Amino acid sequence: MKLLIIVFAFAFLSSAVSIERLIPAGASVVEAPSPSLNKRWAKDKWGNGLESQRRAVTIRASKNDTDDVADDFLWAMRRANKGGLFHLEKGKTYVIGKKLDLSWLNDIYVKLDGEIKFTNNITYWQSDYFYYPFQKSITFWVWGGKNIKLYGSGTLNGNGQAWYDAFAGKQILDPGNTFLRPILFLTDNATNVEVEGIKFLNSPCWNTFLVRTKDITFDHCRFDAVSTNVSSRPANTDGFDSLNVDGLTVTNTEVNVGDDCFSPKPNTTNILVKNLWCNGTHGVSMGSIGQYPGVLDFISNAWLENITLLNGQNGARLKAWAGENVGYGYITNITYKDVHVENTDHPIVLDQCYFNINETACAQYPSNVNISDVRFINVHGTSSGLEGRVVADLTCSPGATCEGIHLEDIDITSPAGGPPVIVCNNISGDIGVECVSDEE
């Protein structure tokens, strides 16, 4: 009997030790305190427990910029999944140096008060990544599942300077381009995602790419992509890109990047943007769509209100591909309301000769994307004067139909002087304001 007891005790202790070894050094798990009767029934908008009701998981911080804690990070995400909270603490940096598959999440809060920083090991990241064929996109990690909340006062740092320097002079859409750069935040097959308060810093490529995602919101976020080298500026560092998304909301957010501020791409619908500030961007765009031969693309049901666009290439823009072997589709039910532009090259633009296609080729192989029910209401401010007195250019492709285009309360001036000009070509019906054709 004594021998059996000793063997059992030894087995128990061995098991306890093996369990402890599963917890990384410096990590901790704290169970949530029992909530009061009033708080016990309080739930978040998905019907799950609030922060105070969740067990909290932490891991050690990195000691330096090469101290990779990706394995610890993955452990914590698994431990916090299904009702927990993973807290990345203020004042600490967590370096990620390998790709992470987070496609299995379910009811998780990730509170980022510190900094997640990806290594700038270009050799590694160009050989080990998650790949998406749409515009040859790659990413550090994939977030998927349901009921996912990423929030706090911290930073997602893409460590992009090395990428900006190495990519200088290249073009992402060049068919021969093999220099692929990671996207900072990507969701795929995700439902109910909330991102709040996070700072996105120096993404190597797009800041976000939302794929096959339903009901995702961003609130009080900040996006910055700034190079310290004047000869290698950030390129393709879009704030928001999407593919096959139903329900995309962006509110109270600031974007200071070198490309599109907001740019939903094929098959994105039910879009709400409110209180968005953009500086030095390519505008708030619908598209581009119609890129791939034989493929139907669409964007529908977008309401964009209280938008500020400063020092940019474009303001409110619709863009579709033209050229040989392009696709087809439509953009419908889009409203831009209360848009303020300053020093913007093209304040209002309908571009159906995207991407870098000359007028001759665009006329020979026009866009096949139809555009309908688009409203520009109360757009005011100043252009840069790049296009002289032209402050809006609405040119519909001869291969498509553009109808229900309406402009109202447009008050945009140009430093070129004289009355501003609105250009419209191949638009069906009255657009609500006086416009002239290219010939005129």
UniProtKB/TrEMBL annotation:
Listed GO biological process terms: carbohydrate metabolic process; cell wall organization
Name the record gives this protein: galacturonan 1,4-alpha-galacturonidase
Record-linked SUPFAM superfamilies: Pectin lyase-like (SSF51126)
A Pfam entry, by short name: Glyco_hydro_28
UniProt keyword Signal present: yes
Segment forming the signal sequence: 1-16
Catalytic activity from the UniProt record: [(1->4)-alpha-D-galacturonosyl](n) + H2O = alpha-D-galacturonate + [(1->4)-alpha-D-galacturonosyl](n-1)
Primary subcellular site in the record, as a coarse category: secreted
Role noted for this protein: Specific in hydrolyzing the terminal glycosidic bond of polygalacturonic acid and oligogalacturonates.
Superkingdom of this protein's organism: Eukaryota
Gene Ontology cellular component annotations, sorted alphabetically: extracellular region
Locations listed in the record: Secreted
Biological source species: Lophium mytilinum
Keyword Cell inner membrane: no
Keywords noted in UniProt: Cell wall biogenesis/degradation, Disulfide bond, Glycoprotein, Glycosidase, Hydrolase, Repeat, Secreted, Signal
Family of this protein: Belongs to the glycosyl hydrolase 28 family.
GO molecular-function terms, A-Z: galacturan 1,4-alpha-galacturonidase activity; polygalacturonase activity
Listed EC numbers: 3.2.1.67
